[in-house]
Amino acid sequence: MNSVLQAKLLHVLQDGKYTRLGGTRTLHSKARILASTNKPLQNLVAGGSFREDLYFRLNVITIEIPPLRERPEDIVPLCHCFVEKYRAKYNSCVKRLPAQMEEAFSRHSWPGNIRQLENAVRRFLILADLESAPWLKDNYPQSQTATTENLSLKEASAMAAEQVEKEVILRTLEEVHWNRQQAARRLNICYRSFLNRLRKWQRGEDFRRRLSTNEKRPFSEDRVSAMRA
Question: Where are the domains of the chain?
Answer without folding.
Answer: 3-58, 68-228
